[in-house]
Amino acid sequence: MQSRTGDSDNIIFIGKKPAMSYVLACVTQFNRNQETVVLKARGRAISHAVDVAEVVRNKFVRDAEVRDIKIATEIIDGESGEKLNVSSIEIVLGKKQ
Amino acid sequence: MQSRTGDSDNIIFIGKKPAMSYVLACVTQFNRNQETVVLKARGRAISHAVDVAEVVRNKFVRDAEVRDIKIATEIIDGESGEKLNVSSIEIVLGKKQ
Predict the structure, then answer these.
(1) What's the CATH code, domain B8-95?
(2) Interface pTM (ipTM) of the complex?
């Protein structure tokens, strides 16, 4: 399944940068013959991750498809040490077989 | 699959209200013996929809699980009549069998 560049290379963490920087990262991974690219995001960046997946799939890597989407709740440390629940998403994009 | 209350009852559109109002709507549907509840959201509300699904599943309807998640791009009319692409999500929650 994985290409020779290894397992963790194909995970892209979506944060606050403009969507196009993540789209570019994603396209680069596919061009390096990664078979799948995983987009991960938490909290408000979740909407952003869906935008990135849709732009990649519709505009740049036309033979990519959504293989799997998982949602979960992660517990993170808040600013004053308290525990916070935050939703997360994982979108697996892959080349159509 | 559907209960006697009909097909469209089980769709909840997630917008800008507080998450708990959608959680309540969702719990109400399950209590009316709906087998599945579908959460739909567009744009920034996508993160909100994931939050609602996670709260319902983890806190209120412990025997609910995520059955399916789909993402898509919808074309909507902008304020000055132009066409805008907006990402959307559809999360299907269902009672565990």
Answers:
(1) 3.30.110.20
(2) 0.87
